[in-house]
Design brief:
Number of strands of chain B: 0
Oligomer: heterodimer
Order of helices and strands of chain B: HHHHHHHHHHHHHHHH
Strand content of chain A: 15-25%
Radius of gyration of chain A: 25 Å
Number of helices of chain B: 16
Largest sheet of chain B: none
Largest interface: A-B, 31 and 35 residues
Chain lengths: 527, 318
């Protein structure tokens, strides 16, 4: 009987028998549902990744105006396409650690000012050329040149020199930085032949797939690269379809036209999950929805006004109503538990009395103008209305000005003193703080100007003692929490969904949505 | 000169003049849009030198009149310039999008136009009886519901529940005609529902108008069947208003289907235009505007020509 049960489990794992049918037959053999499920799960693992087949993915965010140049990638679609054909030097592991990709290994000098990356031997680009240290150097140069438009320029600024030395590449930095390999996981920095100087849009790299068909903002098809060095990539063909409309994307999954989608709207996620052949996956990440006030503009220049706003927001209500539970409460710092050296600070709660106290202390008695738009984050106008209500309980008047989506990022965000926005988060504290809280950062959208904070940020980069570094980041988070212009009510989860035609999803993978955009490569079509 | 030929020549010349005036409007309209093109290409961190270089490269320093004529002569020769965002040749990029849009519009028209006219004739035949009322009720209901909602409802019922046709109308060159038709079935159905009522109501009204005439009575007295009277005697004399409405709806099928394209992820002109508007890609917006205007004017011109040819009074003016 035992062998028979194992056989049934294997059949079910390979998809030759439905899950319900298996449970029914197992029950007939006297096995409890719990036991049968456990058996099934281990059988599925034993069945392991299957090779071949086609995985189709419906993605949000692509546009016909996108470019194949990785330097210009800005959205989930562009990121997912890069994952197919290209690889950076190192990549974030599923647990947030580091894995070598084009670089086989890497090491820092004792002061973390010089880093050496050893290029993986014997690997080739998809055009057949071997990968050399010169290609890596050229790639870094293309992303850091004077006239580059690369999204990775901010990261490259701290690198003073990159040079090839045999089969190694040496990075020299202006200041020590223990996080350099994390910075190099940035998806713009995929290694291209000659750095892509000849043709940045050629989509030639060392990745597990080769692009077969490219239609910007519409559809991308890639086939397995037979000469790929690693074991990434199960499906023979991967197809991305850009479906920007939420309802259409969910319908495509339900109709079986795609096997996987990103950004399931939180409002309908539970409904979608109820379908028998679909599973919704929620992954906590570093992304957060924010209300940002300029610390150098009245009335927000007064820290008591900022504190009044921070005490006047009901974080749990926002998580419940805006995210429908697919997220967690924020604490007015951009850092949460998804960062490697995280320390839990005291949670700030909604307290109308304290909000009132700080507002009165500030001496400001006018109303406060908040600008918002639909595209600043999903549900932003609703969140603004909730904020208005919770502040009203503290006797503070919030005026909401609805701005058009078109032009919001160029005319309102980072220009107007108080508005709604979102951040995707970064793999490390250093990168997040450097991008948006260093006083000289281009994207310092709260105009946070704190000399002590800046010094600590630079010092923490060179601090190789992990305990000390953790403490420094906790102190910096506290500074932003108590003095910054960031009002962060919630961290949003990535909500993705897959059909039961494919298998191999892993929960809790750090980075971007869809298992750091590796789900199409790491999952497989069930046999 | 034959008066009909003269009349047609006048009508065509008028259309060309109209198109020319619209090209001026499109050009002037995109000129007065806020924001500098060079600035929006290079982004916030652009250096003054890079801005100056790009402005010179794009010819933004020339006087507007010179630029207009350069653009116009290019457009006449089929050269619509290059897209600012991707650097691609606009003519080749648009031609595939335009052919997709025309493909969808063509099949929607092939179904909707004969269906609308047939339903209109049927409604006249059974005027004020239940078939007339049913046809009117159904078509008026379908035109009153927002098209994206019809799209979602059909998507849920036909694609998700019944799985007859795909919910994503993705077509590409690798598909044969049958696969393409299968793929666009749902958007064609929605578009048909949206344009049906207008054409059907106009057919009904135009024919009923003619049905009051004395010669219809004569035809009836000759003993012709009602349907034959409508088809042979009433319909030819009410062609002009019907063709006008049909052409307006055909134009809508080409230039007004952005929402349907987004809902069904169809790679047509609408989505292409919207993406480029939001990136301030002015040459593409101008090119799309010009093409849409040409389609509208062209179809209306055809409607007028058909009216002229079908009307004996216009064919033989005193």
């Amino acid at each position: 009987m035992n062998n028979h049960l194992k056989h049934l489990a294997r059949e079910a794992a390979l998809g030759r028998m439905g899950r319900r049918e298996f449970l029914g037959r197992a029950a007939a053999l006297g096995v409890t549902a719990l036991g049968a499920n456990t058996l099934l799960a281990s059988a599925v693992k034993a069945a392991g990744p299957q090779q071949g087949g086609t995985i189709k993915v419906g993605l949000q965010g692509g546009s016909t105006t996108d470019s194949m140049d990785p330097a210009l990638a800005t959205n989930q679609v562009a990121l997912s396409v890069i994952r197919l054909w290209g690889e950076p030097l190192v990549e974030l592991g599923e647990d947030g650690g580091l894995e070598g990709m084009v670089a086989e290994s890497f090491e820092a000098s004792a002061d973390a000012k010089t880093w050496t990356f050893k290029i993986r031997s014997g690997i080739t680009f998809s055009n057949g050329q071997p990968v050399t240290a010169e290609d890596v150097v050229a790639t870094m140069e293309r992303h850091s040149g004077e006239d580059t438009k690369s999204g990775a320029l901010g990261i490259m600024r701290s690198i003073t020199n990159v040079k090839a030395d045999g089969n190694t590449v040496v990075f020299e930095l202006d200041n020590p930085n223990a996080d350099l390999p994390y910075l190099l996981t940035d998806y713009h920095l995929v290694i291209q032949p000659k750095g892509g100087m000849d043709d940045p849009t050629a989509a030639i790299g060392t990745g597990p797939y080769v692009m077969k068909s490219v239609d910007m903002g519409v559809r991308f098809v890639a086939e397995k690269n037979p000469n790929y060095w690693g074991d990434l990539g199960n499906a023979g063909t991967i197809e991305y379809v850009v479906i920007n409309d939420n309802t259409a994307r969910v319908a495509a999954l339900q109709a079986g036209q795609v096997d996987m989608i990103d950004r399931v709207p939180p409002r309908t996620a539970k409904l979608v999950d109820r379908a028998p052949n679909i599973t919704v996956h929620s992954t906590a990440g570093p992304g957060h929805y924010v209300f940002i006030a300029h610390c150098n503009t009245d009335p927000f220049a007064n820290n008591d006004v900022r504190l009044a706003l921070k005490y006047g927001i009901n974080r749990q209500e926002m998580v419940d109503k805006i995210l429908n539970g697919f997220g967690s409460v924020g604490n007015d710092t951009p850092i949460n538990a998804s960062y490697p050296l995280f320390t839990q600070l005291e949670q700030r709660e909604y307290d109308p009395d304290k909000a009132k106290f700080h507002m009165e202390k500030s001496g400001y008695d006018g109303s406060i103008l908040l600008r918002t738009s639909d595209n600043s984050f999903p549900g932003a106008p609703d969140a603004a209305a909730l904020f208005q209500q919770s502040l009203a309980a503290a006797g503070i008047t919030l005026d909401i000005k609805r701005e058009p989506n078109d032009g919001y990022w160029s005319e309102v965000w980072n220009k107007q003193p108080f508005c709604t926005s979102y951040w995707g988060g970064r793999p490390t504290q250093d990168q997040m703080f450097t991008t948006a809280y260093l006083s000289t950062a281009d994207w310092n959208d709260t105009r946070f100007n704190n000399e002590q904070f800046d010094q600590m940020l630079i010092a923490a980069r060179g601090e190789l003692d992990e305990a000390k570094r953790t403490q420094m980041y906790a102190d910096m988070s506290t500074m932003v929490r108590n003095e910054g212009g960031l009002i962060c009510p919630m961290f949003n989860d990535f909500v993705d969904a897959t059909s039961d035609r494919i298998d191999g999803w892993k929960d809790g993978v750090k980075g971007h949505a869809l298992m750091n955009a590796y789900a199409p490569l790491k999952m497989w079509v069930k046999a | 000169m034959n008066p009909v030929v003269k009349l047609l020549a006048q009508r065509i010349a008028l259309s060309l003049l109209l198109l020319l005036m619209i090209s001026v409007l499109i050009f002037a309209g995109t000129m007065i849009l806020p924001g500098d093109v060079a600035q929006s290409i290079l982004g916030q961190s652009a250096t003054p030198e890079a801005l100056a270089n790009l402005r010179a490269e794009l010819g933004l320093n020339d006087p507007p009149v010179t630029r207009y004529f350069q653009w116009l002569f290019g457009a006449i020769q089929g050269d619509l310039g290059t897209a600012l965002t991707s650097g691609q040749d606009i003519t080749s990029a648009i031609s595939s999008r335009l052919s997709n849009t025309l493909f969808l519009a063509f099949w929607a028209a092939v179904i909707a136009v004969p269906l609308a006219i047939f339903l209109g004739l049927l409604a006249v035949r059974y005027k004020d009886r239940w078939p007339d009322k049913l046809i009117s009720a159904v078509t008026l209901a379908s035109i009153s519901i927002p098209e994206f909602l019809i799209g979602y409802v059909l998507m849920y019922l036909i694609a998700v529940k019944l799985r007859w046709f795909p919910s994503v109308a993705m077509i590409n060159d690798g598909m044969n005609l049958w696969q393409k038709l299968n793929s666009i079935a749902l958007p064609v159905a929605v578009l048909t529902l949206v344009v049906l009522a207008h054409m059907m109501r106009m057919t009904r009204a135009a024919i009923l108008n003619v049905m009051q005439s004395a010669y219809i009575e004569t035809a009836e007295l000759k003993g012709l069947s009602t349907f034959k009277v409508i088809w042979r005697h009433a319909f030819p004399n009410s062609v002009a208003p019907i063709v006008n409405v049909v052409m307006l709806n055909l134009a809508y099928l080409v230039v007004g289907v952005v929402v349907i394209e987004v809902v069904f992820v169809y790679p047509g002109m609408g989505q292409y235009l919207v993406d480029h508007v939001s990136k301030r890609d002015v040459p593409v917006v101008q090119a799309c505007g010009l093409i849409f205007a040409a389609v509208y004017i062209g179809l209306n011109m055809i409607a007028d020509i058909v009216s002229i040819l079908s009307n004996p009074r216009l064919r033989h003016p005193k």
